[in-house]
Design a protein that fits this description.
Layout (H helix, E strand, L loop, with lengths): L1 H6 L4 H23 L6 H14 L6 H10 L1 H14 L3 H17 L5 H15 L11 H21 L9 H23 L5 H17 L17 H24 L9 H22 L9 H15 L9 H26 L26 H11 L6 H22 L6 H10 L4 H27 L4 H22 L1 H19 L5 H23 L4 H30 L6 H20 L10 H21 L9 H23 L23 H20 L11 H5 L8
Helix pairs in contact: 2-3, 2-8, 2-19, 3-7, 3-8, 4-8, 5-6, 5-7, 5-8, 6-7, 6-16, 9-10, 9-11, 9-12, 10-11, 11-14, 12-13, 12-14, 13-14, 14-26, 16-17, 16-21, 17-21, 18-20, 18-21, 19-20, 22-23, 22-24, 22-25, 23-24, 24-26, 25-26
């Protein structure tokens, strides 16, 4: 028991195995021995296995039960299509390819859909093999219905799993810690001698809370990755909170002595801290929904204070703190807006983004859920999407397996497809690593099954032993590995078929041959269809993201200096950022040697370019900086060139260029009045981007130092 507690502290795997075993055996025995319906019994058992063991459904027990009941009509459709298309190998194979791709691809809609994919595949696979018997369809549907309804009831009544910490609560903790840091900054600027030490003490805790929001620190099922407004808003709020924390560290290292408009900046940071604290309280269910009015008012007061303070002749360093504070206020406004959207609030106004620059940062707030899911499906319908690649890879493997199983007239051909669902991974290397334990486990289980069948054991013994073997088998996968689960699952299948039809030792032989065929198909498809998995696509997607971010840098300065209308750079960068984030999420699910490149920092460099540009274009007047177009354009070209160099190196899987020194010798005017503040805002943004792009090759995880740790907080990756 102590070993079990070490490997499964909350007994989650054991409880889940017990629920699946109880429901599967109850449905199977009821159909087989009470109702005397042998056509119904396998569907009652395998329906439970499909949605209880092969599926990973996120949420609380009640949410999982509700999900099971919602997908019941889909299960009816899959079983019906499998039954009706089994009249010929060609029809069943075509259905396998279409449904295999569709069921897998709709997983881009979020973790709930992705977690159901493997189980839903099995609901088509099982009936799509001979005998062609449409008359048995009602019995099959009753069996599947019994399985799903009983499984939903078991989720909430039979040792329900402890509910995971909601992402909303994690976000509340991170934003609450951020609020404490901002309060310490404001106290420091007001002369509190202990403020700086307090900030230094709070930042590590705030950093850890923000890092708890990183996708790599969360199980895939707990990430806010669905296409709905709530998850999109929570993800946006988390990215903004990480960005705010990074800029709070910049304030920590910025000398406030002699800063222009320091009192107004202090008031702005104080209001931002208060709004962050209110947002954190709501996320923890401890207070009302925060209002953006306080931040908007503080931003207006700050701009008025800057307007009433002549910056002519002031050194640029004295304007930097105000530029950082303004960016902090703008991003906090976005944070509060995202929290309100996550709460279900309607925006209350049309999308303010210019039509030429749409979709804007909060475009999803102005659309309904069905439109958002359709948009997610459309934007990933490209060979450059890892979701599209994975769905096409799996569909091709399952279709080939169904074709060969039909042409070779395999007696239990569905085992071939079940093997593919078990061993096929996102990369060829991952597939090979899963292959060996799967084969060893299957052969070992088949040998034991053959010995039992040769011994002529009475089927009653199989009926008695089935629950025990099933319980151990379903718990063995998470606790002992794939080999053990395959061995015991082979015994489970043997015990089931021994009670449905007459069998002999050749059943075990067929199991081994089918698994070998399925493994061979999985390896070959994995080798020829995007064999690098997330790693190969991540280089390309991130390269594209940095390249489009460089376009954002150039276009933003062009808009601010020359008064041009915003072009397509921002929308293109947002889309490429989403594809890069998806590639990184897949990359994290695979096993890789330690990377020399900090992928989190690389994504951060791109997202900071996008988010900073959004804030500048929204808050600063366009045009009017013609007297300093030359130095601004030179600085933007320098930063954009660094992004493009890094992009080219990633595209070629080459070595990242050594960061060059900051551009010097630029002559900046100091007599432009209020436009000097806009220049300071632009320069602060560009200087930050130069630091971001320089960090992508030199800050591996675990870097010591406050700035190094906080710089790892990737913005927006979900």
């Amino acid at each position: 028991m102590s070993w079990l507690r070490r490997h499964d502290p909350q007994l989650t795997a054991v409880r889940r195995a017990a629920r699946v075993t109880l429901v599967a055996c109850l449905g199977f025995y009821l159909c087989r021995y009470v109702l005397h319906a042998p056509a119904m019994a396998p569907y009652a058992l395998f329906g439970t296995v499909a949605l209880g063991a092969l599926s990973q459904i996120p949420g609380t027990p009640r949410q999982r039960a509700r999900t099971l009941l919602i997908v019941l009509p889909v299960a009816w459709v899959l079983v019906s299509l499998g039954t009706l298309l089994s009249f010929s190998t060609v029809a069943a194979t075509a259905g396998m390819f279409v449904l295999g791709f569709t069921v897998s691809y709709v997983g881009v809609g979020g973790p709930r859909l992705a977690g159901l994919a493997a189980g839903m595949q099995l609901l088509y696979i099982l009936p799509c093999f001979p005998p062609y018997d449409p008359g048995s369809l009602p019995a099959r549907l009753i069996g599947v219905t019994m399985a799903i309804v009983l499984l939903a009831a078991a989720e909430v009544t039979l040792g329900p799993d402890p509910s995971p910490i909601p992402y909303q609560a994690r976000l509340g903790a991170a934003i609450g810690a951020l609020a404490g840091c901002l309060e310490a900054v404001a106290d420091t600027w007001e002369g509190d001698a202990t403020g700086r030490e307090r900030l230094a003490a709070l930042l590590p805790e705030a950093t850890e809370a923000a890092e708890a929001l990183r996708p790599s620190r969360l199980p895939p099922l707990q990430r806010p990755a669905s296409a709905g407004r709530r998850d999109r808003a929570l993800s946006s709020a988390a990215g903004t909170a990480r960005l705010l924390l990074g800029r709070t560290v910049d304030l920590f290292f910025t000398d406030e002595g002699g800063a222009v408009t320091l009192p107004a900046a202090t008031h702005l940071v104080r209001q931002v801290a208060g709004c962050a604290a209110a947002a954190a309280a709501w996320l923890r269910d401890e207070g009302p929904l925060p209002d953006t009015g306080l931040v908007v008012g503080a931003l207006t007061e700050f701009r008025i204070a800057r307007m009433n303070t002549d910056p002519n002749g002031v050194p640029p360093d004295r304007l930097r703190l105000g530029a950082l504070a303004l960016a902090l206020g703008e991003w906090s406004k976005s944070l509060i807006f995202a929290v309100r959207i996550a709460a279900g609030e309607e925006p209350g106004h049309p999308d303010p983004t210019l039509p030429s620059a749409r979709p804007g940062p909060f475009w999803y707030a102005y659309r309904k859920s069905p439109a958002l899911y359709l948009h997610r499906l459309r934007e990933n319908l490209t060979p450059r999407s890892v979701a599209f690649q994975g769905a096409l890879r799996l569909a091709a493997a399952l279709a080939v397996a169904r074709l060969l199983a039909g042409e070779l007239d395999l007696s239990h051909g569905f085992w071939v497809l079940l093997t593919i669902l078990t061993v096929l991974r996102t990369s060829a290397a991952e597939t090979r690593s899963a292959l060996r334990p799967a084969l060893i486990g299957t052969v070992a289980g088949s040998l034991v099954a053959a010995l039992l069948l040769i011994g002529g054991i009475d089927p009653t013994v199989f009926a008695i032993a089935l629950p025990v073997v099933m319980l151990v088998g379903f718990a063995a996968g998470p606790l002992l590995g794939l080999g053990w689960s395959q061995a015991l699952f082979t015994l489970v299948i043997t015990f089931v078929f021994a009670q449905v039809t007459p069998v002999d030792w050749r059943l075990a032989e067929a199991r081994v041959l089918d698994v070998l065929l399925g493994a061979a198909i999985g390896v070959l498809i994995g080798l020829f269809a995007w064999p690098r998995g997330g790693g190969g696509e991540l280089h390309r997607a991130t390269s594209t993201f940095l390249s489009t971010a460089a376009g954002v840098v150039r276009e933003t300065v062009d808009v601010m200096a020359n008064g041009r209308e915003p072009g397509p750079a921002l929308p293109a960068a947002r889309l490429s950022g989403q594809l890069a984030d998806a590639s990184f999420a897949l990359y994290q699910s695979e096993r890789h040697p330690p990377a020399s490149l900090d992928w989190q920092a690389t994504l951060l460099a791109g997202h900071h370019a996008v988010r900073g540009s959004e804030a500048l274009v929204r808050s600063c007047p366009a045009g009017g900086l013609l007297p300093c177009v030359v130095p601004l354009t030179a600085l933007a070209s320098d930063v954009a060139g660094r992004y493009e160099d890094a992009s080219a190196a990633l595209a070629e899987h080459g070595k990242l260029p050594t960061p060059g020194p900051a551009l010097t010798g630029l002559v900046w005017p100091d007599d432009l009045g209020q436009d000097l503040y806009v220049i300071a805002d632009l320069r602060t943004w560009l200087d930050g981007l130069r630091e971001d792009i320089a960090a992508i090759g030199g800050r591996p995880e675990g870097t010591d130092g406050l700035r190094g740790r906080v710089a790892q907080l990737a913005d927006g990756a979900s």
